[in-house]
Design brief:
Layout (H helix, E strand, L loop, with lengths): L6 E7 L2 E11 L3 E8 L2 H6 E7 L4 E2 L4 E4 L4 E7 L7 E9 L5 E3 L5 E4 L10
Antiparallel strand pairs: 1-2, 2-3, 3-7, 4-5, 4-8, 6-7, 8-9, 8-10
């Protein structure tokens, strides 16, 4: 199966412009995200959850930041059903205060039909 093309957008957060690119691979057993945010320090400090088109949220259960390549790769459980789109939801984790999502940096990635099994 061909690798999905990354979705890329320029976002504005706190008056600064951020280039964000994300690629998502979805299988029946796992979801894999590769994300690149132009600000390497922010990328190292930031966590990312994924939400489907029905707002079901998957939390990351592991990943790596590759600062030289400017990418972070994260693994998630599989979605219950193949989503029509996935929203990449960046956040900062403030410990006991919880997650602070950064809606200005959210990125919606369309999910094509899976030609191998006919799912959507």
């Amino acid at each position: 199966m061909p690798s999905p093309q990354p979705s890329e957008e320029t976002k504005i957060n706190q008056g600064e412009s951020w280039k964000i690119a994300a690629k998502i691979d979805i299988s029946p057993i796992t979801t894999h995200l590769v994300i690149n945010i132009a600000d390497k320090h922010l990328q190292e400090e930031m966590g990312v959850d994924l939400a489907d088109h029905e707002r079901n949220v998957l939390e990351s259960h592991g990943g790596h930041v590759y600062p030289l390549e400017g990418e972070a790769a994260k693994s998630y459980d599989a979605f219950p059903t193949r989503p029509k789109s996935v929203t990449v939801k960046p956040y900062l984790d403030w410990g006991k205060q919880g997650k602070q999502y950064i809606p200005e940096l959210e990125l919606v990635v369309p999910v094509p039909e899976n030609p191998e099994d006919g799912s959507k």
